[in-house]
Amino acid sequence: MEQEKIYAIRHLSFFYTDEWYKSLIDYTDHTGHITDLFNHKDAAIARWKQLEYDFSHKVDFYNILYCEYSDGDDTDDQKELLAQKTVDELFEIIQELQCHVYGLYEYPKQLKQLVLFNKKSGQYDFCDLRMDDDDVESNIFIPSNFIKDSPLNDEISPPIHDIFIEHDIDLKGTLEELSDTPLLLQRLIEENPDIKFYPPNSLKIQFKDLAQVNALLKKPIEKEARYLSIEEIYQLEQQLNTSNPPPTNRQEEKLFAIWLYREQKYFGYKHILTYTHPDAFTLLGTYIFDNEVFIEGSLQDLSDTPDLLKNFIENNAGYFEYRINPTGIFIESADVIDFSYLLALNALLKQPLFEIRQVTLEELAQL
């Protein structure tokens, strides 16, 4: 029996890549704050068209004139022509050029998603995805996860990727550093295939296993997993994206950026890329390298656990290759490899390629 549906519109964020303007979030990622919610698809589509129309006028049509598939003609005449288009006519151009700033999503109304609640702050974890002044719309959203093996997942449109079903919590430290009972923690890891430890110091757990792992940690994670409907998430995100920002001291707000060891700089395009939650880099599929990357050295030179590194490379042969002459790890098409794979490789290296660091607003201003 087909479930009753609900239709959500998400903001995908708008930024400049040094080449063209585009949406930051891939349409198929089911990420970005929910701006509107409807019970009827026709009403949702009409609102989607209007949002794209209003946004295009607000940014003087830069989202159209400077998108990847446009001809770059930004003359006053061209802008005047676009200004004369109706809502439907402008939406047709946006569809053709694939320069959407919003996306339409279809969910079963009974669908629940897993989110994290911070018991210390009394807030749900959220990400602030507004990139810079180019992105004229607020985009604060609650990272949410589809529940693995739920029969409702098959009724979601666009279809979800496996990678977006469960996101990991990454804890840094050896088992002895993380727990007063490392043997019990080791046994839990052995018994639960979804809890993974990557020597020497990376423990990855899923939201559903948080309570079990928390019981064995020296410093329990002050968060709990909760299940919310799309409507409940929408209501929370509406509050986050009102004219009043989330209740946090802006000067003390936690920001995270990626430090690239080889380049000795923070990653970014026009500006250093920062998020208010370290998991956002994985959640949003950040791409931090250009073209190909070669890490020189033998497996023994590069890792304290060369056998694990060897297995990792062999299991991900489509992305990584160990070469003998010259000796080292070759990363093919590093500019399009998913961030989660780079995180896993990074955890196995003596000298990491990058590090997610917390930075302050003052430090960013100096940089």
Describe this structure in words.
The protein folds into 3 domains: 5-162 and 229-240, no CATH class; 164-225, no CATH class; 250-366, no CATH class. The protein is 29% helix and 23% strand. It has helices at residues 41-58, 62-65, 76-83, 87-97, 175-178, 182-191, 210-214, 230-240, 280-283, 299-302, 306-315, 339-348, 361-366; strands at residues 5-11, 14-16, 21-23, 34-38, 102-108, 112-118, 123-124, 127-128, 140-141, 145-146, 168-172, 196-198, 202-206, 223-229, 255-260, 265-266, 293-296, 320-323, 328-331, 354-359. The strands form 7 sheets. Strands 6, 7, 10 and 14 form a 4-stranded antiparallel β-sheet that branches. A 3-stranded antiparallel β-sheet has the order 4-1-5, with helices on both faces. Strands 11-13-12 form a 3-stranded antiparallel β-sheet. Helix 1 packs across helix 4 (87-97). This is DUF4123 domain-containing protein.
Specify the biggest β-sheet.
Answer: 4 strands, antiparallel
Please count the helical segments. Answer: 13
Helix content: 25-40%
Tally of discrete structural domains: 3
Please state the CA-atom Rg, rounded to the nearest Å: 22 Å
User: In one word, what is the shape?
Assistant: globular
Query: What assembly state would you assign to the polypeptide chains in this entry?
Result: single chain
Structural class by helix and strand composition: alpha+beta
SS strand fraction: 15-25%
Q: End-to-end distance, in Å? A: 57 Å
Q: Which stretches of 5+ consecutive residues score pLDDT under 50? A: 244-252
